[in-house]
Amino acid sequence: MTIENVLLVSAALFAIGAYGVVSRRSLVTVIMSLELMFNGVVIAAVAFSRFTPSAALLSGDPLTAEAIRSALTGHAFAIFVTAVAAGEAALAFALVFAMYRVKESVEITDASEMKN
Amino acid sequence: MEVSTLTTIAFWAVSAMILGFATIVVTQRDVFRAAIALAGSFLGVGILYFVLSAEFVGVVQILVYVGAISVLMAFAVMFIQDIASGSRPSQGRLVGAAVAVLVFGVFAFTAYNTNWSSMDAITDPVIVAALTEGFVEVGTGNAIEIFTDLPVDENAVAVKNGGVFVDSSGSIGVLVVREYMLAFELIGLLLVAALIGGLLLMRNPSTTDELVKGDFSV
Predict the structure, then answer these.
(1) Domain span at A60
(2) Phi, psi angle pair for A38, to nearest 5°
(3) Residue in A69, A95, A110 to test binding to B, most B beta-carbons within 10 Å
(4) How confident is the model at residue A14 (pLDDT cuts 50, 70, 90)?
(5) pLDDT by residue (tens digit) across B52-77?
(6) Which of A29, A90, A96 lies at the smallest CB-CB distance from B87?
């Protein structure tokens, strides 16, 4: 397991998600594919955190607790992205329900205008 | 077997699980099955974080994605009757495949053709020990004491403060409320905004109209 392998999986998940976003017609599956893309990005962040050292550790300056903690920046980033993704999913489904109520359809081709 | 061999096997097994379920999500016509496969893919990603020694992120992934977002997806699928007929593919299928192959190609090329700096570049034994065994922060400043030789005593301070990649939760907590305080606060604001926005979009228009007129009996 090297960083290249993990990034390969991350890229594959992102690409599968991108395919889903473009090729599906139902908004619900499009949102599912978007979540897959989010996961691909977060995997890359965690992989960088795990395999590459932060600049503060390589600089040769006296070791500080801050410098050691900077090795976990990718983890903090992953948690923030997860929080944003959760908010995004909730709002996206609220929009889908609003559209379903007005148009009785969740097909992406019917979504060109939200005005009834 | 060596630990690294086992880790590699676990990594490829989990990767196969993630990508297999993800493929089902984007190809399955039955949307409910796609939602179940999505939960499986999320679970696989959670396990992958454990393999990458990111336990805290793994737990967050399982709580938020497998626990909350999957339930939201299942709820949406059951709420919208229209979807029972299945999710049809759009005309953009070939375009989608082309985009996916292109994106994957570029990312994979970059991943394999970049000279990533490696953790092996760290030769200072003190830093290695701090990253893998443990460190103790002394006082409020930046001074730390490194324990390379962990004491056998269970109650020793060094045992309670595992290294960053051994027991990362505490360090992530400090990192989030110190270095990333602003982002942390903004996330709270964002979630409140999302909550209010969701409620506003989901409201029943007729009930809200009566509320606006001042009739609070509904």
Answers:
(1) 3-111
(2) -55, -45
(3) A69
(4) very high
(5) 888 899 999 999 999 999 998 888 88
(6) A29
More confident residue, B212 or B61: B61
Structural domains of chain A, count: 1
The per-residue pLDDT for range B150-189, each reduced to its tens digit, is 544 444 444 344 556 666 788 888 889 988 999 999 999 9
* Average pLDDT of the segment spanning A61-72: 78
Helix axes B70-79, A27-51, angle to 10 degrees: 170
- Whether residues A21 and B96 touch (CB distance < 8 A) is answered with yes
Query: Which DSSP category does B52 fall into?
Result: T
Residue scoring higher pLDDT (B7 or B16): B16
- Over residues B79-105, the mean pLDDT reads 80
Domains present along chain B, CATH in parentheses: 1-89 (1.20.120.1200)
For residue B168, the SS3 value is: coil
Q: How far apart are CA B42 and CA B65, in angstroms?
A: 6
Please check whether residue A116 lies inside any domain of the structure: no
Q: Give me the pLDDT at residue B153, please.
A: 46
A89 shares contact with chain B (CB less than 8 Å): yes
Tokens of residue B52, six digits: 């990458």
Please, is A65 exposed, middle or buried when counting C-beta atoms within 10 Å of its C-beta (0-12, 13-18, 19+)? buried
In a domain, A87, yes or no: yes
What CATH number is given to the structural domain containing A76? 1.10.287.3510
> In 3D, which of A13, A75, A83, A89 has the Cα closest to residue A45?
A75
